[in-house]
Amino acid sequence: MAPIVKECDFLVIGGGSGGLACARRASGMYGVKTIAVEAKRLGGTCVNVGCVPKKVTWNAAAIAETIHEAKAYGFNVEETAPFNWPLFKTKRDAYIKRLNGIYARNLDNDKVEHIHGYATVTGKNEATVKLNDGTEATIRAKKILLAVGGHPITPQDVPGAELGTDSDGFFEIETQPKKVALVGAGYIAIEFAGMFNALGTETHLFIRHEKFLRSFDPMIQDAIVAEYERLGIKIHKLSKQNKIEKDAKTGQLSIHYEDSEGAGVLENVDSLIWAIGRAPEVKRLGLDSVGVKQDAKGQIVADEYQNTNVENIYSIGDVVGKWELTPVAIAAGRRLADRLFGGPQFVDSKLNYENIPSVVFAHPEVGSIGLTEPEAIAKYGKDDIKVYNTSFTAMYYAMMEPEDKGPTKYKLICQGPNERVVGLHILGLGSGEMLQGFGVAIKMGATKKDFDSVVAIHPTSAEELVTLK
């Protein structure tokens, strides 16, 4: 059989959110002959094992919380059966499968050719794709985009670590664990811990330091750690795992560890989830063969215009590692397509990586945009910033007993004589939806005076941000 050879103007390696956004704009808007290659399911991490199924699970956890809180409002809600995890998982899987189909149809609508297989770059204008049937195809392209994303990592130095799973494996769990252990201090571990706990699973969280979400403002760190402890999540601080063992009869795990209280063994664990970080998906990409530069973590080095050091090869998304967020990859991908194919008016098109809002779907939600207080002090000096704080109980909790009330905390960080808002950090009910609008204001350069000039919407939690003293 003659080898398959294809030619195109634009080859996109990676069918996640960023790669698909770039491919669709190049082909659908600018008529560029585009091929997209993906080895797994379309949509990448976000759609399949990330934001989308995570948020659906968070919704279930939020409903569980509401059911428990309904009594305070006069409802007599009786749960006749425990949460039906298998039914929920089946429906969640079906939803993701529908999304995979929508992504495929969108590629067809924008006339992007989709090839299922693993791509390896073999030259600055060429790649080889290993197809499902084991055959190979050579694709010659004028320009190549590397948008392969990343994958979760597991420890290599803990005996028995392979007995646990990772954040991808979380979505494969068939029945609800009675007892779960999570290792990690980033948003993935924190979100999973909150969801498990709200759904009634005994939840243990192992962190290496005293606090988690350590890239967030100290106010957020302190408040969310205290709230998780209040909610009954067992946080093992200053911890490390020595070995993991599995009971041959029950299949349950024992975790041998050390933490701030000394050495211990956590027994009868149904699921262990490692959420200790992610690595770029570059193993089979062939970067060495064309000399694409990588940093110490293996992430592809790209400049502010998403150029790599190799002419006609570009990179976006998690594999670059600037901001590992789906909307960031989409925005960077679309701007890159504009710059490459949209004509002279887009010659300077690029993503501005400043003031990107992000949300952690913890319990409660956390939102953040701009600089933390330590970052603002380091950048501008303590005398040039002014910080406004508020801490209160949301009206939703007014009908509840003191021990059932969750926290709300907001912080506004302002700089200079005009008090330009350079950081906003919020924790409490509705933070995710709230932050998007405030993000627009901050992106436009809003000042404290601008915030103050807005008439408050009462009664809301958000009004506290425009009445800060």
Descriptive report:
- The chain folds into three domains: 4-52 and 88-152 and 279-346, FAD/NAD(P)-binding domain (3-Layer(bba) Sandwich); 161-276, FAD/NAD(P)-binding domain, CATH 3.50.50.60; 358-466, Enolase-like, domain 1 (2-Layer Sandwich), CATH 3.30.390.
- It contains twelve helices and 21 strands.
- It has helices spanning 17-29, 44-49, 51-69, 85-109, 167-170, 187-198, 218-230, 287-290, 326-341, 373-380, 431-443, 448-453; strands at 4-13, 34-38, 113-123, 126-131, 136-146, 150-152, 165-166, 179-183, 202-206, 234-236, 240-246, 253-259, 262-269, 271-274, 278-280, 313-315, 358-360, 366-370, 385-392, 408-415, 420-427.
- With 469 residues, the chain is of the alpha/beta class.
- The longest helix has 25 residues, at 85-109.
- A five-stranded mixed barrel has the order 1-2-3-4-5.
- The mean pLDDT is 97.
Number of domains: 3
CATH architecture of the largest domain, by name, is 3-Layer(bba) Sandwich
Helix content: 25-40%
Number of strands: 21
Placed side by side, the strands forming the largest sheet appear as: 1-2-3-4-5
Q: How far is the N terminus from the C terminus?
A: 76 Å
- The class by helix and strand makeup works out as alpha/beta
Shape: globular
The CATH topology annotation of the largest domain reads as FAD/NAD(P)-binding domain
Q: How would you summarize the topology of this molecule?
A:
Elements: E1 4-13, H1 17-29, E2 34-38, H2 44-49, H3 51-69, H4 85-109, E3 113-123, E4 126-131, E5 136-146, E6 150-152, E7 165-166, H5 167-170, E8 179-183, H6 187-198, E9 202-206, H7 218-230, E10 234-236, E11 240-246, E12 253-259, E13 262-269, E14 271-274, E15 278-280, H8 287-290, E16 313-315, H9 326-341, E17 358-360, E18 366-370, H10 373-380, E19 385-392, E20 408-415, E21 420-427, H11 431-443, H12 448-453
Parallel strand pairs: 1-2, 1-5, 2-3, 5-16, 7-14, 8-9, 8-14, 9-10
Antiparallel strand pairs: 3-4, 4-5, 6-15, 11-12, 12-13, 17-18, 18-21, 19-20, 20-21
Helix pairs in contact: 1-4, 1-9, 3-6
